[in-house]
Specification:
Length: 178
């Protein structure tokens, strides 16, 4: 897990290699997946076990999914799968550090702002809001665009509300007892 969490290390994705038979076996099993929700993990694993993760079948699948993005920024996928594809694109950006990989994410953000009410009606946003917020925070750190920050605020206030939940729980249940 520490090797795969490249964002927490002072290393860029793809700078660490590991020859672990279990990880290689896992990568071989997941490499041929066609499930968008597995793309990010598969690519991050490719960064650890492959010398050229940008040329792996998973990277090709991520690029293919990004090429199917519509002009308005949406995908012909569910909300959960769309966010998963964008998170996979972010993982590729961390590896390649090429700005064009951020364009599909930015276009989807513009789509999300315009169609926020429709997105809020989808049950997946409630289950996957943390994934979206993590993606948006990463994008904001790189771009500094205030539009991304306003979308972060919408996601945090309208879907998560973790701080209010934690304050309510601590108010109802004393935590000073063992």
């Amino acid at each position: 897990a520490p090797l795969m969490a490249m964002t927490t290390l002072p290393l860029r994705a793809g700078l660490v290699r590991m020859e672990n038979p279990a990880m290689n076996k896992l990568y071989q099993q997941i490499e041929m997946t066609n499930t968008p929700t597995a793309f990010e993990g598969a690519f991050r694993l490719a960064c650890v076990v492959s010398a050229k993760p940008g040329e792996t079948p998973v990277a090709a699948k991520i690029r293919a999914m990004l090429s199917f993005q519509k002009d308005d920024g949406s995908f012909m996928l569910s909300f959960k799968e769309s966010v998963a594809v964008l998170r996979a694109a972010w993982a590729m950006y961390e590896y390649e550090a090429r700005k064009p990989l951020l364009d599909p994410i930015a276009r989807w953000c513009a789509f999300a702002v315009q169609h926020w009410d429709d997105l809020m009606a989808d049950d997946d946003i409630w289950a996957n809001s943390a994934d979206l917020l993590d993606l948006l925070e990463n994008l904001y750190r790189v771009t500094g665009k205030s539009a991304v920050l306003s979308l972060c605020e919408r996601v945090a206030t309208q879907t998560m509300g973790w701080s209010s939940v934690l304050n309510t729980v601590s108010g109802q249940r004393p935590t000073n007892k063992s």
